[in-house]
Design brief:
It is a multi-pass membrane protein. It contains 9 helices and no strands. The protein is mostly helical. The chain has one domain. The radius of gyration is 17 Å and the shape is globular.
């Protein structure tokens, strides 16, 4: 156990840092769990990943809420539908294998990456416009879709949310990241409602990792505020490229 924690605790810290800024902490955390604990059930590793991540996400969300104006009238309903969507996605995980979902995610991620790359001003400034009833409905639809995706498959959930909030609500990256944390927190909690009762969380590993993840999230939030939108944009593009490469590798190898 001690040997595994020597790897998992630093990785949980790094995952919390990255996730707090642009999402995608699972890109680091889940492979680390699979490497360090190869004899454990994959479902137990997924549950431990979610347990760890929910604490870091909550910590980052709290940091953002204190300093960023969140459009609660749109984000809370989006979080509610994301919660329901995540529960639905988790329920049909066994019926839709990852090999069916992955090609679609690769295409969507590539489109998102190219769009962001070709628009240097994308996410640099917040339009500050008043969100309408149409935005409320759109937010709920996006929340349900991304929540379903997170419950079913998961990689890059926070990054997809950020992109959608910038693209459709015209937030800057900092505000989009803050809003994404609220919605992502809802999807993580929904997943834990399945994993914890099913006894699929390895608490002896997950609790120390959660503490490290919280510490990383605090550092990541600080760096996001300090670096601003330009820094978040660069990190977002790096993460998107990394996630795209990982999914393509898994699809064709």
């Amino acid at each position: 156990m001690e040997t595994a924690l020597f790897l998992l605790i630093p990785m949980a810290f790094v995952a919390g840092l990255i996730d707090a800024a642009v999402g995608g902490g699972g890109l680091i955390l889940l492979p680390s769990l699979l490497t360090a604990l190869p004899k454990e059930l994959p479902a137990a590793l997924l549950g431990s990943n979610k347990f760890t991540a929910v604490w870091g996400t909550a910590s980052a969300a709290l940091s953002y809420v204190r300093r960023i104006r969140i459009p609660w009238k749109v984000i809370l309903p989006a979080a509610a539908t994301a919660f329901i969507g995540s529960l639905a996605g988790a329920r049909i995980t066994h019926y839709l294998p990852a090999d069916i979902i992955r090609p679609l995610v690769i295409v969507l991620l590539a489109v998102m990456l190219v769009y962001t790359w070709r628009k240097p001003s994308f996410g640099e400034e917040d339009a500050g416009r008043v969100l309408t009833r149409r935005d409320l409905i759109l937010g709920m639809v996006m929340g349900a879709a991304i929540g379903f995706y997170d419950g079913l498959f998961g990689p890059g959930t926070g990054s997809f949310l950020m992109f959608l909030f910038v693209r459709f609500f015209h937030f800057d990256f900092l505000r989009a990241s803050a809003s994404a944390k609220i919605v992502n927190l809802a999807t993580n909690i929904a997943a834990l409602l399945f994993f914890i009762p099913a006894k699929l969380v390895l608490f002896s590993y997950a609790i120390p990792m959660a503490i490290a993840n919280i510490a990383g999230a605090q550092v990541g939030s600080y760096l996001a505020f300090r670096g601003g939108n330009a820094w978040i944009r660069r990190l977002f593009l790096i993460l998107a490229v990394s996630l795209l490469a990982k999914l393509i590798w898994q699809q064709y190898h």
